[in-house]
Prior knowledge:
Blueprint: E1 3-6, H1 15-21, E2 29-37, E3 43-51, E4 54-59, E5 62-67, E6 73-79, E7 82-88, E8 93-100, H2 104-118, H3 154-157, H4 161-178, H5 180-197, H6 204-252, H7 256-260, H8 264-306, H9 308-314, H10 318-353, H11 357-362, H12 366-418, H13 424-465, E9 487-496, E10 499-509, E11 514-518, H14 525-532, E12 540-545, E13 548-549, H15 555-559, E14 562-565, E15 574-575, H16 576-580, H17 589-598, H18 602-606, E16 615-616, H19 625-638, E17 643-647, H20 655-669, E18 673-677, E19 689-694, E20 697-702, H21 704-710, H22 713-727
Parallel strand pairs: 11-18, 11-19, 14-17, 17-18
Antiparallel strand pairs: 1-5, 2-3, 3-4, 4-5, 6-7, 7-8, 9-10, 9-12, 12-13, 15-16, 19-20
Helix pairs in contact: 4-6, 4-8, 5-6, 5-13, 6-8, 6-13, 8-9, 8-10, 8-13, 10-12, 10-13, 12-13, 17-19, 19-20, 21-22
Amino acid sequence: MQSTIPAAAAPGPDGRHALQSRLNKNENVLATLEVDIDAAMQFQPGSLALTERRLLAWDKGRWTEWPLAAGMVLRHADHGGIGTLELLDSRERLALWRFTLAQHAAVLSFVARFERLQAGTPAPAPAANDEGEDEDEADDDGRPTSTWVLLRLGRFARPYRRQLAIGFGLTLASTAATLVPPYLTIPLMDQVLIPFQNGQRIDPGFVMLLLAGLLASALLAWSLGWARTWLLALVSERIAADLRTTAFEHLLNLSLDYFGSKRTGDLVARIGSETDRISVFLSLHALDFATDVLMFAMTAAILFSIDPSLALVTLLPLPFIAWMIHAVRDRLRTGFEKIDRVWGDVTSVLADTIPGIRVVKAFAQERREAQRFREANQANLNVNDRLNKTWSLFSPTVSLLTDLGLLVVWAFGIWLVSRQEITVGVLTAFIAYIGRFYTRLDSMSRIVSVTQKAAAGAKRIFDILDHVSNVPEPAQPVKITQLQGAIDLQGLGFRYGNRSVIRGLDLSIRPGEMIGLVGHSGSGKSTLVNLICRFYDVSEGAIKVDGTDIRRFAVADFRRHIGLVLQEPFLFFGTVAENIAYGRPDATRAEIVAAARAAHAHEFILRLPLGYDSMVGERGQGLSGGERQRISIARALLIDPRILILDEATSSVDTETEKEIQKALDNLVQGRTTIAIAHRLSTLRRADRLVVMDRGRVVEVGPHDDLMARQGFYWRLYEAQARRVEEDGGEDVQRPAPAHAAHPAGQ
């Protein structure tokens, strides 16, 4: 049963507040979803919201709701780049929404929450913050961060357990040394100062002995504290460095689909700032916390040994402080998780804008990018302000409670002195001890903040380490001795999520054969070469090289035999020689030069200021597109691959540059199994066979002339491109020769 509620305002900046105003008492929003296509298949924003009781949807100025009932399901699918989300009960379809695939991940999350709710295990409702907005308590995987995640750092601490044991011993000894001076104040007061004030003589030797004890304990505490801090700081830096290295190495081994769902700035923030935060926690705050606990326990033991009744009064503020710590911990945890996410947004804006600064300036979008950064920075500021509001109340309240506790101890202690149950020296020592006691108690309460901050950072690091690559290594890899380059694709199928990209594909490629892949954009050409490179694993069927399934090879071992030349070659910051030798860092200068000559890059490299030692700017800045491409070809030549992948290698350069690159490619393909994708069909006429793809399937296979004679799918592609070139006044595509003409050279 559905009902419609007129909407006062469309969901937008104030949409969440408009939705909250329509909720019943104790009803919480569990999940929200933005859909962006209306029933007329036009771009139109809409919203869905899921509560414990109902599903609400906003469209064209009206709220519509469906009370949740048994048997109600959400079903999602996609076709042709448009996704659909259906709400059904046991009898009929209740509603239908459409969305672009940019919303696909959000839809999957929304459906998962709906299914958990229907199964009787709903996700916890977000807690409302002071501003009336919903805080997202869950991390990337939907689970709230626990402080116990810090215990997982133990695997990184294990190699340094000896140093940690020594550090703990030093901490125990230095803490004990700091507790000696207050105990010496008892004889100083009762046997020296008070008798001297009453006119009695004092023993100078005894006074000097007490003062020497105070000096010795201070020097001992200083030296032990220095050694402890230095040792544990070294260990914590090494633990953080190991964590950073392990996270980066694991990140490099993940498949490409992981990077497709993550933003560069967020990953940089995780491996950079999060590990720094953990290092600071381990080197400073964890050490302080251990010292605080030891000081707290040892001071409490001394206080009870001196006077149990006064010690009990000293502990009065402790239950209230413990309750406050428990109450504020969850708010701090969710706050720091939110800060981590919005800071990832800030760094992502930088990671997007700085590498693309040429495009930003070319389209005069400096103001827009500045506004993007300002908005991300403001969101970061808002989250920090809300967290600081909580912390600013918590910390002074703890200080107030400790001050009140000190006042009570003074009052009770004076009453005991007046009844001659304790001496002034005992009260003085008590006051000195509880000064340390309450200071440590206040410090322990403050550690809640940094602990939750470190736990949030550790969780984000372990989110990377816990992610399993979709391209796993075989348990017992087959060793590659020498590849011939025969490739067999058998019943190949591949899906991105629930979207089928390649289906039922069969193809055999002979060793040393050059295959050209052609087809409309989106036909699956690039996906196919990605599967051959094993950037992804097939969903169905198998890819065999020399008769062996490539999933039985070690990933790195297999890829060493593949040369890849991309449409947009990526060059690293470094010298020209280092970029050419990237696949073979141990290559000699003579081998590098030989590869550059074969790639027709030697001449322009010599024209650079320092030749092969000239620095290449980030992403190849300072070189033309053709020059970057020829360096990329030289890089592929140097590793001498048996299988060569050319993905639109000449599509982004002019005709003259293409001729130079084509000469380099002619050298590159000799004797190698080659799979080439090209935007200009004329560049593939040298291929032994052309494989024509459409909607993830192979529709035609054969040499250029044969396919032209058939006047099928390839012929229509070729004719359409020829007409476009003629209309543009170009000479790139030549009309085909008659079907009986001689075969072009190289076929």
